[in-house]
Amino acid sequence: MQMRRALIPIVPLLGAAAVFVIMVALYLGRSLFAPVFLAVFIVSVVWPLQRAMEARLPRVLAMFLTVLATAAVVIAMASLVMWGLNRAVQWAIGNAAAFQTHYQRMDVWLQGHGFYLASEFIHNFEPRWLFGALQRLGVGLQQVASFIVIALVFVVLGLLEVDSTRQKLVRAGRADVVGACRATAAKFQRYMVIRSAVSAATGLGVWALAYAVGLDLAPEWGLIAFALNFIPFIGPLFATVLPTLFAIVQFGFAIEPVLIFIGLNLVQFLLGSYLEPRIAGRRLSISPFLVLFAVFLWSMLWGIAGAFIGVPMLIALMTFAEHHPAMRSWTSLLAGDPAERGRSD
């Protein structure tokens, strides 16, 4: 009995050590694990298309058309986003002197009104920092595109093995795992439909606002907002701050940058914080704290690709936990607001 009590404090330490080892392994093997996890996510999302084609076409041809359609969508989105970012970088380089002038004026104004901490930040501001941030964002999105290209190879293999894997699990008596996989795939599909619709609405809203105010690069800001909205919290933040900075350079310290900033926050709040949770409903309700933690955790491990796939990973973990009796109570504790979930159904 005493030995058993002595082992109890060791169990949490062993669990923490195991989690740490797993995190290190995922980080060191990100070039392999990230495409594989992304491939599983893509297979789960496009499987209904594959199954519908298999009813009319040979299996291999259906798989080829499914992968071709997926690649076409990815290439089209990546091309549009990179075009928008390149246009923004070119505009910023062409107005580098204006950037420096306006932020020096902001430094003087902040010092004159006693905002010394903010003034210190502005004083050290260099336009090259902004250019570097835009270029790093572009490089990160290119890495995501390269991950997707590698993932498509795994998608081909995954689409060919979905049925055989399901049959093996059933024969092994693991129907519970099959049920968890089906529930996870259904949530992935719902998540992507909702996220795509909200992202498209966000992009249109940003474009309309920028066009109405007269901000340069209005179509580009709409495309960038559409793409970045797939990354919760971090994406909308960049999609709000960047156009505001460019508006200050274009209009100076006038009413237009204020309108841009307020309008962008209003668009993000109405679509991301109000409309999307009500559309998602109970089946995708997750604590906002967990969503933010997942985004930062996976972005730390895998960069922008991890930030994109962080929420789907969280959805998968919680769905499998829901199908495990010992973990079911924890999923209800970590879910979103029960009152909101009840009203959304």
Which structural category do the helix and sheet elements fall into? mainly alpha
Q: Tell me the overall shape.
A: globular
Rounded to an integer in angstroms, the radius of gyration calculated over CA atoms is 23 Å
Could you tell me the number of beta strands?
0
Helix content: over 70%
Strand proportion, as a percent range, falls in: under 5%
Secondary-structure element series: HHHHHHHHHHHHHHH
Spans of at least 5 consecutive residues with low confidence:
116-121
Number of helices: 15
Distance between the termini: 50 Å
How confident overall, as mean pLDDT? 78
What is the total number of structural domains?
1
Biggest β-sheet strands, sense, barrel: none
Keywords:
345 residues, mainly alpha, 86% helix, 0% strand, globular
Structure commentary:
The chain is mainly α and 345 residues long. It has one domain (31-344). Helix content is 86%, strand content 0%. The chain has 15 helices and no strands. Helix 3 packs across helix 4 and helix 4 (59-94) packs across helix 9. The longest helix is centred in the middle third of the chain and has 45 residues, at 127-171. The chain is globular.
Which helices and strands, and how do they pair?
Blueprint: H1 2-7, H2 10-28, H3 30-54, H4 59-94, H5 96-112, H6 116-123, H7 127-171, H8 175-213, H9 218-228, H10 234-251, H11 255-280, H12 288-302, H13 304-322, H14 328-334, H15 338-344
Helix pairs in contact: 2-3, 3-4, 3-7, 3-8, 3-13, 4-7, 4-9, 5-6, 8-9, 8-11, 8-13, 9-10, 10-11, 11-15, 12-13, 13-14
